[in-house]
Each structure stands twice: as C-alpha cells, then as structure tokens.
Design a protein that fits this description.
- By secondary structure, this protein is an alpha+beta fold.
- It has 8 helices and 12 strands.
- It has a 12-stranded mixed sheet, sandwiched between helices.
- The protein is elongated.
Length: 282
C-alpha cells in the first residue's frame, strides 16, 4: 500500500478539516484538544498539519502543530488510525513536523501527548525528553455563586494595562507579558480583572470552545495569595459558564505549581495528565 504525506497550513480548508474531524470521531475529547482542532480554521491561526493519505485518497493519520501565542513556539501532537499503526506512520509524521518547523523558522517546539507508556517510549526513541507535565481539571457550571461584598470582577479595559502588566510580572515573569499581548489580540479571548476595594488582586483569561469554557493565565498578586482570591475566581468562572449555558469549565495546571489544590477546593476534578516533550540537543 502506498502512503503519501502533504502539508496544509492553517487556516485549513473546510473539506480537509472535515476529514480530520472524521478521523478522530469517537476518540476522547483529550485527543481533539491536543490536536488543536479548535484553531484549524481560524483566520488568524498560525500552524500547519502533516497529512497522511492512502493511494485511494483516504486520510489515515495526521499531526497538527500550532503557534498558540504567536512567539514562533509550536506545540504539536499526532494521531494514527488504529488500522495503520505499526507501519512507522507516526515517525513519518514527526519527521514531517520537523521539516515544516525548520521551514517556518520555529524558535522552539513541544510535543504534547497524554501520558502513556507507548507514546512515552516512542518519543524517547525520537530523541525527545519530557520537559514538564500539566494536570487538566474540569468542573461543572455553578448555578449560583456570590462574590464577597468587597470584591468585583470586571472585563479588562485599556486603562488597566499598566496595572495588569505589573501584576503579571510579579506573579510570573516577563514572558507573561508576551502571552498577555497575544490574549489581547485574540478576539475570542476575554481578560477579566478581580479587584478588592479597588485594588487589582487577580486576573484570568477566558475563552469558549464548542461548549467548554477555558480558563487560562490565572494570576493572583503575590501579596494577596492565601486570601481565597484564586478559588473565588474559579467559582465565578463556573457560574459564568452556567449563565452562558456551557457544559463545563476546563483549566490546565503545571504539576510544579504547588497551588493546584486550589482548583480541587473550587470544585474541579483532575481528568488527565499531559506530558510535554522537547527534543534533546545532542
């Protein structure tokens, strides 16, 4: 059987995207998320797919890579139809990803896969080493929730920029400013600020995908930690999901982040562990 590879840049045309969706139909939601299905057709998306077709034109495998925050840093994952595994297709896809990354002048890459002994061994055989892991949590919408009287959560306005940048620098590092710039440019992301008696104490970015509400870039001012602000923000997001008639709230937390128990206290349940792999420089 002859198999051929081709490259399609984002945004992907509707026919190809439909083939990609059909191939992973019935697979766990985690698979779709890792393959960046929500950005394939977005007009501003930066990325590409490596597609494997049979000689009769059937799509049987693909890898998808996306520059999620516009920093020439790509995250990619791959899927091979069960009937076509053990043919070396996954490795061919990985080679195609590397070729495309070089053509695009990528500054860095991460391979993202659900933790599993088979994929772990395969990535190690390709010269990758595990860089870090993230826990994915989910929670159901919350029908009612009342913030404390001294706390308000409001949408970001341009006048808040300097104050927000100072909070992000204090909570993270300078890289957070680049992520903020991307979030501000993306029309599908909304930044919210939590204030207590007028003082900015926390922030988070929200976006909707299908019927899910994603919460990212949650940051609490260092001098306001252990005050319950992070937990309050999470519960408020759950109530917002209920107001928008969404099905769940999703967050990802680095396993090195010792604050992850806050998510459980806010009613979130751990659903999976994602491993991020980086090619080891010889």
């Amino acid at each position: 059987m002859e198999l051929s590879l081709s490259i399609a840049s984002f945004p992907i045309d509707a026919e190809t995207a439909g083939e990609m969706e059909q191939l992973i139909d019935g697979e766990p939601e985690q698979c779709r998320m890792l393959l960046q299905n929500e950005v394939w057709q977005k007009p501003f998306a930066k990325g590409f797919a490596v597609l494997a077709y049979t000689d009769s034109g059937d799509l049987v495998a693909y890898a998808a890579a996306a520059d999620l925050v516009g920093l020439h840093h790509y995250e990619w994952s791959a899927f091979v139809s069960p009937d076509y595994r053990r043919l070396g297709l996954a490795t061919a896809l990985a080679d195609g990803v590397q070729h495309s990354l070089e053509q695009r002048g990528a500054e860095s890459e991460l391979a993202a896969f659900t933790e599993h002994i088979a994929s772990d061994s395969w990535l190690e055989s390709l010269g990758y080493g595990r860089s870090f892991q993230e826990l994915q949590f989910e929670a159901q919408p919350l029908s009612t929730y009342q913030l404390a009287e001294t706390i308000v959560i409001e949408a970001y306005q341009e006048k808040d920029l300097d104050e927000l940048m100072n909070l992000l620098r204090a909570a993270f590092d300078e890289l957070a400013i680049q992520v903020l710039e991307h979030n501000l440019e993306d029309p599908e992301r909304r930044i919210y600020l939590m204030r207590q008696e007028g003082k900015l104490v926390a922030t988070a970015t929200l976006s909707s995908e299908d019927r899910d509400l994603w919460l990212t870039s949650l940051a609490v001012s260092p001098d306001s930690r252990r005050s319950g602000h992070g937990q309050a923000f999470l519960k408020w997001a759950r109530q917002l999901a209920h107001q928008k008639n969404l099905s769940r709230v999703l967050v990802e937390v680095d396993t090195d982040n010792m604050a992850w128990p806050v998510y459980e206290k806010a009613g979130f349940t751990r659903v999976s562990t994602i491993s991020y792999w980086q090619r080891i420089v010889q």
